[in-house]
């Protein structure tokens, strides 16, 4: 059965219903002329990069490494040093294709509103800022009629999810291609495993286990000249309004795989988490471990775990269990319940999915095709991770629909370096964090 028609959960049905109502109904997806896609007559696809950190630099390099006639024409970031470093790193990485970087100083935009100016100059926009800004950046790109590649996650709170859904509906009416950086969907081994799952090789799905367990991450020291807003933005990973916690920013990949094979989104999430190891004030307000039990409408359970503990074993993987066998995604292997190998993907045929997602997106744009509408799926995966965070923070079971319609908004009232972020340190520099059983979100 086609995955996009295989809705098991009330949560997903309600999610799709709301999106459809926003869109006024889905329109057909015809092949359009290139005139609908390019801003000039030369056939060059002009790219703007919004967010010039490591992932933005990588995404822009991959976009510029495609076979299509592409050119980076504009860049935007809150910080001039990030933009400058990214500009140089992209040119160096491209080597003999460095002439595809054509960003004069007048097209390098700095500040919280810089994205609007950069978007205006492009045909395709790469959105790679900290994910808290994704909803407003995506909304603006769609408003200006641009195709979009945006990194996951697509929001950090339910209010942001609603904004992304609204913009996704408009993108469909405008026939704008949107790809979200959940790259397992573009990876050869995962695609082959999924084909065999659809063909019934492991029977009906019984459960899923997903992991993103790894060691410690980076921290940027506070400098005397930083305002609180600048400090948090430079350490965006440790603040929920910017990052969503690592269950949202990182573990979303594995959660998305579970949803993909399930053909649905979870109805509820319950679990536990905390700050067992990463307890210092430099780690802001996020947890260092989460364990979530996701329940789907058909009774299937997905167990999810993620953690950041130094010197503990790492595991980033997904396991899909069926009535006739199981799938080990990292091994790219399918076995029956006696351990007999039913299918083994040839790792020599593996691709770089980070590159493939750009190859396929830009090939479609170059042909004038409307082929990709990932924004809704990206919002589904993101909200799945968000309800997991809300569950571990509160110690309560979180309902998908209650969360989606809650209006919960983590963001500041205004964006400037002098503005006050939504969470502030106490006199000792420590940040308040959630206490399971005490922190409440919904009644």
TrEMBL record:
Residues of the Gfo/Idh/MocA-like oxidoreductase N-terminal domain = 45-171
All residue ranges annotated as the GFO/IDH/MocA-like oxidoreductase domain in the record: 190-327
Q: PROSITE patterns, alphabetically? A: TAT
A GO term for molecular function: nucleotide binding
What name appears for this protein in its UniProt entry?
Answer: Predicted dehydrogenase
Q: Which organism is it from?
A: Chitinophaga ginsengisegetis
């Amino acid at each position: 059965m086609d995955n996009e028609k295989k809705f098991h959960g009330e949560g997903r049905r309600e999610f799709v219903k709301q999106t459809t109502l926003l869109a006024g109904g889905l329109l057909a997806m015809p092949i359009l002329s290139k005139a609908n896609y390019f801003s000039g007559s030369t056939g060059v696809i002009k790219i703007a990069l919004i967010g010039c950190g490591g992932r933005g630099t990588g995404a822009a390099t991959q976009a510029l490494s495609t076979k299509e006639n592409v050119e980076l024409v504009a860049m935007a970031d809150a910080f001039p040093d990030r933009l400058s470093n990214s500009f140089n790193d992209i040119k160096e990485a491209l080597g003999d294709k460095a002439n595809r970087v054509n960003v004069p100083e007048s097209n390098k935009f700095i500040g919280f509103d810089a994205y609007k100016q950069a978007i205006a100059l492009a045909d395709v926009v790469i959105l790679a800022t900290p994910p808290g800004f994704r909803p407003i950046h995506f909304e603006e790109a769609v408003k200006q009629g641009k195709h979009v590649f945006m990194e996951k996650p697509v929001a950090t709170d339910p209010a942001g999810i609603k904004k992304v859904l609204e913009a996704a509906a408009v993108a469909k009416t405008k026939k704008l291609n949107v790809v979200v950086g959940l790259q397992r969907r573009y990876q050869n081994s995962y695609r082959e495993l999924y084909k065999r799952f659809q063909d019934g090789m492991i029977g009906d799905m019984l459960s899923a286990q997903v992991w993103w367990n790894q060691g410690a991450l980076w921290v940027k020291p506070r400098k005397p000249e930083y305002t609180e807003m600048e400090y948090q933005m430079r350490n965006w990973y440790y603040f929920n309004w910017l990052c969503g916690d690592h269950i949202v920013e990182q573990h979303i990949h594995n959660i998305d795989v579970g949803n993909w094979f399930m053909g649905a989104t979870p109805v509820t999430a319950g679990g536990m988490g905390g700050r067992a190891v990463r307890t210092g004030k430099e780690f802001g307000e996020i947890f260092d471990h989460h364990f979530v039990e996701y329940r789907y409408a058909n009774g299937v359970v997905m167990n999810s775990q993620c953690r950041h503990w130094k010197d503990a074993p790492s595991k980033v993987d997904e396991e899909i269990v069926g009535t006739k066998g199981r799938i080990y995604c990292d091994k790219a292997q399918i076995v029956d319940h006696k351990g007999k190998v039913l299918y083994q993907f040839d790792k020599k045929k593996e691709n770089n999915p980070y590159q493939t997602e750009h190859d396929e997106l830009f090939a479609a744009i170059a042909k004038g095709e409307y082929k990709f509408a990932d924004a809704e799926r990206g919002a589904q995966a993101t909200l799945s991770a968000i309800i997991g965070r809300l569950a571990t923070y509160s110690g309560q079971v979180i309902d998908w629909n209650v969360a989606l319609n809650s209006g919960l908004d983590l963001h500041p009232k205004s964006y400037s370096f002098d503005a006050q972020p939504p969470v502030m340190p106490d006199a000792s520099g420590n940040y308040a964090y959630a206490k399971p059983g005490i922190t409440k979100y919904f009644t």
